[in-house]
Specification:
mainly beta; six-stranded mixed beta sheet
Length: about 210
């Protein structure tokens, strides 16, 4: 694989070629982070070979040690791969059932990940993608949502790491209300005159 690639499965196929000027067979061993993983064998000089290597999670630096029939050794270039088997953990930290009086409310999201430092996110409003971008892992980030109608909305943030692991947050509910309440005065009527300093008012208040 290409150097510094990311994968979300533990097994990867490596293609390698060992060459010796004598064209004799060459012994090889595979090393991961400086330690032999126990995979070794004999290959024909100049012939491409394939082998599967199973990794544990983490940053893994892989190289081959070749040895010719005279015992002379040489190592290959180091290939770094990132094995990430764990999905990010996204959450909306805005308080559930928060009220907003604007159609572009701002919420706060937080996504953590065991390996990746920059996480892709998508905020879904009522199941439809509304905002997307990237955040630093473990850092709370404010996101301004786009053009929400008045009413109740369910929010979910989805996190996607470099290896392709994906997870959704627990839903949060917000309310958008940009309409002012309506107050109707029922009593007294317009231009009503009184002879004292106090009066009983009758009114109704309606809200959408």
């Amino acid at each position: 694989p290409a150097n510094n690639s990311w994968f979300n499965t533990p097994q990867r196929r490596f293609i390698f070629n060992l060459t010796d000027y004598t064209s004799r067979n060459i012994n090889y061993s595979i090393f991961i982070n400086g330690v032999s993983n126990g995979q070794n064998g004999i290959v024909v000089s100049g012939i491409s070979n394939r082998t599967n290597i199973t990794f544990t999670e983490g940053i893994r630096r892989v190289y081959l040690l070749g040895q010719d029939y005279l015992g002379r050794q040489k190592t290959s270039q180091v290939i770094t791969i990132n094995i990430d088997l764990t999905a990010p953990v996204p959450q909306i930290t805005t308080t559930n059932q928060t009220w907003y009086n604007k159609t572009n409310p701002n919420i706060t999201i937080l996504i953590t990940d065991n390996m990746d430092t920059i996480i892709n996110y998508t905020v879904f409003v009522d199941g439809v993608a509304n905002k997307f971008g990237t955040v630093l892992t473990g850092i709370g980030t404010q996101v301004v949502l786009n053009n929400l109608a008045n009413g109740t909305h369910s929010l979910v943030v989805q996190g996607l790491d470099e290896a392709g692991n994906m997870a959704n947050s627990t839903p949060k509910i917000i309310y958008v209300d940009t309409v002012r309440p309506k107050i109707s005065l029922l009593y007294p009527p317009v231009a009503y005159s009184v002879l004292n300093t106090s009066i009983d008012l009758k009114f109704t208040v309606n809200d959408n």
